[in-house]
Amino acid sequence: MKFYDRKSEIETLQEILDRSNETAQFTVVTGRRRIGKTTLLCQAYKDTTVVYFFVARTAEKALCATYAQEIVDKLQEPILGTPENFSQVFEYALSLSIRRNFTLIIDEFQEFLKINPSIYSEMQRIWDKYEKQAKINLVVSGSVNTLMSKLFRDKKEPLFGRQTRFIHLRPFAPSVLGQILADHYPAATPLDLLALYALTGGVAKYVQLLIDNKAYTPELMLSEILRDDSIFIGEGKTLLIEELGKEYAIYFSILEAISSGKTTRNEIQQAVGKEVGGYLTRLEDIYQLIEKKQPIFEKTSNKNVTYHIADNFLAFWFRFIFKYGYMLEVQQSTALLKIIQRDFSQFCGLPLERLFRAVLIEMRLFTRMGSWWDRKGNNEIDLVCENEFEKTATFFEVKKNLEKYNPAELGKKIDVFLRATHQFEGYTLTQDRLALTDLEPLLHGMQMTLPTEKSSPVES
Asked: Is residue 89 within 8 Å of 75, Cβ to Cβ?
C-alpha cells in the first residue's frame, strides 16, 4: 500500500526542519503502536540527511557502536575511539550540528528506560549545554503513550519542557479510509468502509495489512484477521501487557467486561468481582484505553456514566479474540469466525456512531457534539450537534438501514431532551438521520452531503 495522507504533519515536520537551520529543534512524535510514526518521519525527511537511532533492548555499549557507525555512514564524520555510553554519542552529534545541520531521529525513545534510565538526565545536561549553538533537528519517537507523556510533561522528569514541539499522530480520517478502499477496490460499498473502520479504527498498519492481502469486504477482513499466522491474534497482548504492567490481568478482565456490553461501573464491578474505581480512572486518564461517556449537557461528573473501549481494534480484540481465545488454542478458528459473523453487525453499532462522528468532525460544521440519553434509558439520541455561532442544532439518529429511521419517534425524544436540559433556547432546530448510504461519497473522493440540508425542522 502506498503512503497516504499526513499532509499537515509532513508540512509541520518540514517547517521544523527549516527552523533547525537557525536554531536547535527538539520534536516529540508519539501515538499508539502501528499508527505509522516511523513511516511518517521517513516520508517527511526522505530528501534530507537523516541519522537514525533505533533503541533496541540490548546493552548500551552495543547500541552505541551501532549509533557511531550510523554517524560515520550518514555524515562521513570520523569517530575517534569506541563510545561506551549514549551520552558520548549524543554529545558528539550535537557538537557536529554546530557546524552542519542534520536530522537525528531516535525511535522507540522510551526503551532507554529499560536500558539505562540515567540517559535522560544526561540528555538534559547535554541539550542544555549545546541548545543555543546547535543546528540540529532532533526528533524522538515513542509508542508507549504513558511513558512518552511522562518523560516530557512530568515536572519531575529531567526532559520536562525541553521539547519544542509535541506531535500526537492520530488514525486515518474516514475520508482517507474511503480513498484507500476505493483505490484498491473500486466496487467497495459503505458496508466495506464501515468494516474497515470498525476493525482498524484507521490505524495505518492494520489498514495496510488488510489492503495488501486484498481483504476488502467484511468477510475477507475477518478471515484475514483469524489466519493462523495473523499478527492480529496476539496484538492485544503485544500492545498492552507492557503498557499496563504487572496488574494487566485485572485490566484485561475489565476491558473484556466492557467489550461484552457491561458498560456501567456496577456491571463491570460485578463481572470482575472487585472494586474497579481506581482501575477505571487509570484506564481513562493515564492509559487512555477507555472513554467515559455521559449525556451531553450532563451537569454532574459521576452520574449516568458509561464506559467504552476507545480503540476500535482493541474493542474487537477483547470482544472476540481474547474472549474466545480458547477456541484458537485448539485450532477452531472456523468456529470462532461463525461466532464473529453472527455478532458482527451488533458489534458495529458503536463504530458506526463513531464513524459518523469522525466524518462530522472532518466537515467542521459544529462546535459541540455528543450523545444524550435520560437516566431511565427510555430515550436516547445518537448525536446532538450544535453550532454556537449560527445558533443552530441538529439531532441525528444513526441507522445502518435507512428504512429503520422513524422521524416521529426521534421528534418525541427531542421533546424529552429539551424539557430535561433546557438547552437551545432561540436556536433553529432540525432533525434527520445518518445511514450507511450517506457514506457513499467518501468512496468517490467526495465529501459526504449532510442530510440536514434537506432535513425537517423540529416542531416546538
From this structure: no
Contacts of 164 (CB under 8 A, 6+ apart): 16, 25, 26, 27
Q: How many degrees, rounded to 5, is the angle at CA 145 between CA 248 and CA 162? A: 140
Q: Return the amino acid letter for 182.
A: A
d(CA 40, CA 347): 31
The tens digit of pLDDT for each residue in 228-283 reads 999 999 999 998 988 888 899 999 999 999 999 999 999 999 999 999 999 999 99
How far is the C-alpha of 157 from the C-alpha of 169, rounded, in Å? 23
Number of C-beta neighbours around residue 285 at 10 A? 10
Ramachandran sector of residue 6 (left: φ over 0; alpha: ψ -120 to 50; beta: rest)? left
Spatial neighbors of 400 by CB under 8 A, at least 6 apart, are 345, 348, 349, 352, 435, 436
CB atoms within 10 A of CB 439: 23
- CA dist 87 and 96 (Å) reads 14
Q: C-alpha grid cell for residue 10?
A: 509532513
Nearest to 200 by CA among 135, 118, 212, 229: 212
When pLDDT is cut at 50, 70 and 90, the band that residue 459 belongs to is: low
Q: What is the pTM of this model?
A: 0.92
DSSP letter assigned to residue 109: G
300-319 pLDDT, tens digit per residue, is 878 899 999 999 999 999 99
Residue 114 makes CB contacts below 8 A (sequence gap 6+) with 57
* Sign of the dihedral defined by the CA atoms of residues 107, 111, 113, 116, in that order: negative
Q: In angstroms, what is the C-alpha Rg of the chain? A: 25
Q: How many CB atoms lie within 10 A of CB 81?
A: 7
Roughly how many angstroms between the first and final C-alpha of the chain, as a whole number? Answer: 52
Where does 324-430 have alpha helices with state H? 325-329, 333-347, 349-363, 407-421
- Rounded CA gap, 223 and 27, in Å? 40
The number of helices, as runs of H, and strands, as runs of E, in the chain is: 20, 12
Place of cell 473522493: 445
Q: Name the phi and psi angles at 75, rounded to 5.
A: -110, -5
The whole-number pLDDT of residue 280 equals: 96
